[in-house]
Design a protein that fits this description.
It contains five helices and two strands; from the N terminus they run ααααββα. The protein has helices spanning 2-11, 27-47, 59-67, 89-105, 125-148, and strands at 114-117, 121-124. A two-stranded antiparallel ribbon has the order 1-2. α1 packs antiparallel against α4 (89-105), α2 runs parallel beside α4 and α2 (27-47) runs antiparallel to α5 (125-148). The longest helix is centred in the last third of the chain and has 24 residues, at 125-148. It is globular, with a radius of gyration of 15 Å.
């Protein structure tokens, strides 16, 4: 995940770039969304009680975690991880610093600490980490395509 965070950092100077052929959202929107997602999910993991983890089968979760890819344009981001209307560069750097600290702490958490995903259900630490990586890869690919098509 540190490599992905490095890629996010490298894209911050291009935040004002956009290309509606690729995405309605700007590079800054995708960066802010990725960072909010990482930070909020890891905070949820940290706060969770491992004794409350219940494993269950979820077909879509199994498919996404197995293929390691989220199809474009198929899901809407929950409001809690929507970027503000005006995204400040300094806010991206602050969120990035927090994300680096949070990601470094994941492995220290109990294996049954968990995150409740709105579509995939309860994810333990291992699957949460995998989801964050897949989600970040998805948005980094969009950012790359926006910048490539300019």
């Amino acid at each position: 995940m540190q490599t992905q965070l490095d890629q996010i950092e490298a894209a911050i100077p291009y935040g004002d770039h956009s290309n509606v052929e690729v995405s309605k959202a700007s590079v800054a929107w995708h960066l802010d969304h990725m960072l909010k997602t990482i930070n909020k999910i890891v905070m949820a993991l940290e706060k969770s009680d491992p004794n409350n983890f219940k494993s269950s089968f979820n077909f879509m979760r199994s498919v996404i975690l197995t293929i390691g890819k989220i199809p474009r344009g198929k899901a809407k981001a929950p409001k809690v991880v929507h970027p503000p209307e005006n995204i400040l560069t300094e806010d991206l750097y602050k969120q990035l610093q927090i994300a680096r600290e949070k990601v470094a702490q994941i492995e220290q958490l109990d294996k049954n600490q968990h995150f409740e995903h709105p579509f995939f259900g309860m994810l333990n630490r291992k699957n949460t980490k995998k989801f964050i990586e897949i989600h970040t890869k998805h948005h980094l690919a969009i950012v790359h395509d926006i910048l490539k098509k300019e």
